[in-house]
Design a protein that fits this description.
Order of helices and strands: EEEHEEHEHHHEHEHEEHEHEEHEHH
Strand order of the largest sheet: 6-7-8-3-9-10
Radius of gyration: 24 Å
Keywords: ATP-binding, Nucleotide-binding, Transport
Family: Belongs to the ABC transporter superfamily.
Protein name: ABC-2 type transport system ATP-binding protein
Oligomer: single chain
Number of domains: 2
Structural class: alpha/beta
Number of helices: 12
Pfam families: ABC_tran (PF00005)
Organism: Actinoplanes teichomyceticus
Length: 327
């Protein structure tokens, strides 16, 4: 596949009275054509700095960046017309209507004015197009921002928290829109804190922490590389559930007790669970692995400092998931 976006060794340092802070510390990212790519990281991890640097709003200290095969920021004027972007909270003139706002933007950018009703339809604002922006909710303003980024029919669409302020129905519509844009051949780089949505919508992800990449690859690969050792245990009806859990806990198992089952979070060898319980004449009715989701992986990777310089790839499994009780 062709890379639409490439970042290699990107560094950005800020100096203040408190000393030197590395906002980006050798960050790498690749986004392939036609994908919806999730860009994830906790607050302060370097996501917005990366996007602003990519768009020529911040000058990096070092590193290489390319959009559509062109080095940036050197050749940003040549590719800017093929990139649509929303970074941080967009601002609009409150007394203008959405239609007027987009018409002015289209005129300034040399865009066919027929794109205005088309993008309003795409983001679900057609029926509210003649209302002033000051009457819009936060979610509607987000839709308007997305519409403005789509005016140029970009090859690369960069969206920073586009679901901010949307209700569940609006989030679902935004998900459908991103998928439709990708199916049409557009590449979407999506930064979001709604990890469940990222897992549903994205083909691939890059996770950043402390200015460094800590994981990258397809969603399936990232999840597979951090397979959970947690299992769900159900016993035969009438069995003393807390008593059975205590037997395993005494042997070193990390137990979470629920109403009708319990989970073992560190089950390196699930067979030990059935063995220990059977020795007490307690028999297991269900023993099911609990799959890791993107939130689990995200918290694991960003909750502590990277141990290997920050460039851990999807074929490496963290120590936390590699071993476990009962091996």
């Amino acid at each position: 596949m062709t890379a639409v976006l490439e970042i290699s060794g990107l560094r950005k340092t800020y100096r203040s009275r408190k000393g030197v802070r590395n906002a980006l510390d050798g960050f790498d990212m690749v986004v392939e054509a036609g994908q919806v790519h999730g860009f994830l990281g906790p607050n302060g991890s370097g996501k917005t700095t990366t996007l602003r640097t990519l768009l020529g709003l911040i000058k990096p200290n070092e590193g290489r960046m390319a959009i559509l095969g062109q080095p940036v920021p050197q050749h940003l004027p040549q590719v800017a017309g093929q990139v649509g972007a929303i970074v941080e909270s967009p601002q609009f003139f409150a007394n203008l209507t959405a239609e007027t706002t987009l018409s002015l933007l289209a005129d300034a950018g040399g865009v066919d004015p027929r794109r205005v009703p088309a993008v309003l339809e795409l983001v679900g604002l057609r029926d509210r197009a003649k209302e002033r922006v000051k009457t819009y909710s936060l979610g509607m303003k987000q839709r308007l921002a997305v519409a403005s980024a789509l005016l140029k029919e970009p090859k690369l669409l960069i969206l920073d928290e586009p679901a901010n302020g949307l209700d569940p129905g609006g989030i679902r519509e935004m998900r459908t829109l991103m998928r439709d844009l990708s199916a049409s051949g557009m590449t979407v780089l999506l930064s979001s804190h709604i990890l469940g949505e990222i897992q549903l919508i994205c083909d691939s992800v890059t996770i950043i922490a402390a200015g460094r990449r800590v994981a990258a690859g397809s969603v399936a690969e990232v999840l597979a590389s951090h397979t959970s050792t947690t299992v769900r245990v159900r016993l035969e009806p009438g069995v003393d559930l807390p008593g059975a859990a205590e037997i395993l806990r005494a042997a070193g198992a990390a137990i979470t007790l629920e109403n009708d089952h319990f989970t073992v979070a560190n089950a390196g060898n699930p067979a030990q669970i059935t063995k220990l319980l059977a020795e007490r004449q307690i028999y297991v009715a269900e023993l099911t692995p609990v799959s890791a989701d993107l939130e689990d992986v995200f918290l694991e990777l960003t909750g502590t400092a990277p141990v290997d310089g920050g460039n851990r790839q999807v074929d490496q499994v963290s120590a936390a998931t590699r071993g476990g009780w009962g091996q």
